[in-house]
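Teaching assistant here, posting this on the class forum so everyone can see the example we discussed in section. The complex has two components, and the goal was to see what a joint structure prediction looks like when all of them are supplied at once.
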Amino acid sequence: MTQFFQQFINGLSIGSVYALMAVGYSLVYSIMNFSNFSHGGVIMFGAYFGYFLLTIYKLPFSVAFIGAALLTALMAVVIERVAYTPLRERKAPYLYFIISAMGASIFLENIIIATIGPTFRTYPEIFSKTPFKLGVLSVGRLDVLMFVTSAICLALLIYIIEYTKIGKAIRATAYNIKASALMGVNTNVIIIIVFALGGFLAGIAGVMFGMKYTVYPQIGAITLKSFIAAVFGGLGSLQGAVVGSILLGIIETFTAGYLSSQYRDLIAFALLIGVLVVRPMGLMGKATEDKA
Amino acid sequence: MNTYIEGILILAGINLMAVLGLSLLTGFTGLFSFGHAGFMAIGGYTSAMLSVKFNCPFIPAVLAGGLVASFFSMIIGKLTLNLKGDYFCIATLGFGEAIRLILDNVQYFGGARGWPGIPNSTNIWNVLAFNIIAVLFLANLIRSRHGRNLIAIREEELASQVIGINVFKHKMISLMISAAYAGIAGGLMAHYMTFLQPKMFSLVKSTELTIIVIFGGLGSISGSVLGALILTALPEFLRSVSQWRLVFYGLAVIFIMISRPEGLMGGYELTPSSLKKLLIRFKNRSQGKVKGLEGGNK
């Protein structure tokens, strides 16, 4: 029973970081209707920004954390302007967006390899490794940080989307981009805001993954998990992305804990196909034709 | 022939085989797949198993690889072809990665460490023969009733359903042929490299294939041929700047998408008859207007 709760807590903390990535991906999907495969590259840059702000500029942790997130948000917006805006203006089919996103992702990964090098880098130790004790359970400090930060960020995001004017505009744009433009929503600005929000969360996720594991150019591959989580929960639905991510995190840690860590990724992909077969719109998604 | 050049040509031919299959699926049917490396892996491992463990001759082994890949694609197609847009593409992505991860754990095939000792039977001539047959088959398929149905589905799925095309069935046929091509490519690769490792069939490989198809031009077979030749040879010439190679590659992909998304050939074909037309137009222009008027009166 102890092991069960232990795995549950680990799954919760990793799942909450998946949620940060999946939400950014899902936001873009809900408005532009394509899979943003460059999201992984953006997360990788977040991890590197955090690393360099901490080691070279020796900034205090909280400043570096926010700074990395802001830089990553800027990065996501730049990618949107360079790789997607020209396509958007030409009303290109979604295929071209995906290819452009793949190009961006190849570029981001390899520019790091070419300039900084493919070596693994470890974040400086910010938190002591001694875990908190909760009765028989032990919870790593980093895990707590990951869960709390993610929860705060997600709550803020949902507040923005549901209760502010900008959020209303984002929802309207996701519902029908043309009609919202006619109603006076500046959809260009909305798209930039969406990429900035997604990038900000990606930056936070990147720094936390960097701290938990190490920083290396292929770290963006981890976003595959967030794609799975987003599909799992229903593409384009934010709540779905969060629920899907947390479920995926828990299922993964349980597989690793009770079966073997070799099967962890396999289960994740099998789950993806299984969900698509049984419930193609995901757990909380609506029918495929209309968007959240 | 210089063995180095020959090696590049064989690799280009193997890539071309898989690219032709993907071209049918993406270029002519409008379905996006990120799992073709998975089909290549199935074809490669099947044919290698047949020739190593059962002493099967080269050509039947490779063809069997294609068949098995096609069979797997039928299963995955049954499950996912009804899904719209990105869902199919993400499902194939999951499938491709799942195949790789399964192969990582199958000790019979050497697991993640790889599987050496496959006979070296692929050479420039049989690759060439496979490619010629593949191109001829595809070119004829595209011009058949089936091919026109596929193009109709690509252009407007709903409308083609309304006029009575069985969309699901035709997508399925397209996917199965496409997977068979990828499987044969995998078999050729296994017998050229004489070594297989699941890592060779990662998402990167699938992405590479898709990029070649787009680069050559969606809906153009000759574009795919040119694309496979150029994009396989290009990295070899860029060896000296190897670190920056993929940086430029990524930039080039974005650049093509925002400046010339129709790719190299832009849906046109390079066939003997189109070449002749081009030649005639060229001749007419050089001989002045008289000839042109005569042509118009006919």
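For the discussion questions: The first helix of chain A runs from residue 2 to 32. The interface with chain B takes residues 29, 33-35, 82-83, 86-87, 92, 94-96, 98-100, 102-111, 113-114, 224, 227-228, 231, 235, 262-263, 265-266, 269-270, 272-273, 276-277, 280, 288-289 of chain A (CB under 8 Å). Think about how each of these relates to the inputs above.
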